[in-house]
Amino acid sequence: MSRLAAPAGLRAVLPYLCLAGAMVSLSVGTSFAKTLFPLVGAQGASAYRVGFSALLLCLVWRPWRMPMTRRDLVAVVAYGAVMGAMNLCFYMALRTIPLGLAIAIEFTGPLCLALLHARKPLHFAWIGLAAAGLGLLLPLGDASLNLDPVGVAFAATAAVFWALYIVAGQRTGHLHGGRSVALGMATAALVVAPVGVATAGAALLNPIALGLGLAAAVVSSAIPYSLEMVAMRAISKRSFGVMLSLEPAVGALAGLLVLGEHLAARQWLAIAFVIAASVGTVATDPSRKPVEAPLHD
């Protein structure tokens, strides 16, 4: 009996391990991509990440085989354009603010979307908790904790695009998941690549930078996307959303270990408030829809 119980227990926990692995891979890959900034800049690193991700996803899913109406094509192109803008803004934010804080600020996009139709007092409590978390990141009283306002603005803009990404993604929900994401990522590459080329120029052709960019794309996109696909088949939407809410903390730890980004106690508390607000929002959402995960950072 023990031999049968062990595999059954492993099967039960495997999807959660896959989702945890996806978050870790995404955060580590994004931290690794940030080390490319001195070589090609944030725009160039974003172009690598989105461009190589599009290439890998298209090779795997071959989206040109997907039958599409004109309306579907417009929806996928809009989805991809928003995805590209979200990626670019997030990477621009990472130039001057730590990864964990950038993710926490970006998380307010789907949070606001989830609470758009808030009616119950408890829902407004989650809004207040998220606002308190963001308030802790404001430069009040301690100059050493000040965040670059331009970086914060880019992270906040990425939050808006994340919310739009969810709306656009829902309009492609009837299409094949892998192929629509591949086509969307290809569209995102068309948005981001010209910006990267215009700013980084010939530096993008550096063989070392190309190799590092490909590695960053694999770790921050191909691996987490594959793991998420496994997880989503076996985990309820609500549980998926609750676990995903831990991403700011995972990002902060990855930033600490990979980039040496040390956060003050107040900043860790801000991340904790945003995570608690996200978990509470997902857990009490009557529609039972998760805070959806993009292939972003």
Structure description:
- The protein has helices at 2-34, 37-61, 70-94, 99-114, 121-136, 149-170, 177-200, 207-234, 237-244, 247-259, 265-283.
- The radius of gyration is 19 Å and the shape is globular.
- Helix 3 (70-94) packs antiparallel against helix 6 (149-170), helix 4 crosses helix 6 and helix 5 runs antiparallel to helix 11 (265-283).
- The protein has one domain (14-283).
- The protein is mainly α.
- The longest helix is centred in the N-terminal third of the chain and has 33 residues, at 2-34.
- Mean pLDDT is 87; it is low at 1-5.
Name some characteristics of this structure.
297 residues, mainly alpha
Structural class category: mainly alpha
Distance, first to last CA: 44 Å
How many strand segments?
Answer: 0
Shape: globular
Give the helix/strand layout.
Blueprint (H helix, E strand, L loop, with lengths): L1 H33 L2 H25 L8 H25 L4 H16 L6 H16 L12 H22 L6 H24 L6 H28 L2 H8 L2 H13 L5 H19 L14
Helix pairs in contact: 1-8, 1-10, 2-3, 2-7, 2-8, 3-6, 3-7, 4-6, 4-10, 4-11, 5-11, 9-11, 10-11
Structure in a nutshell:
This protein is mostly helical.
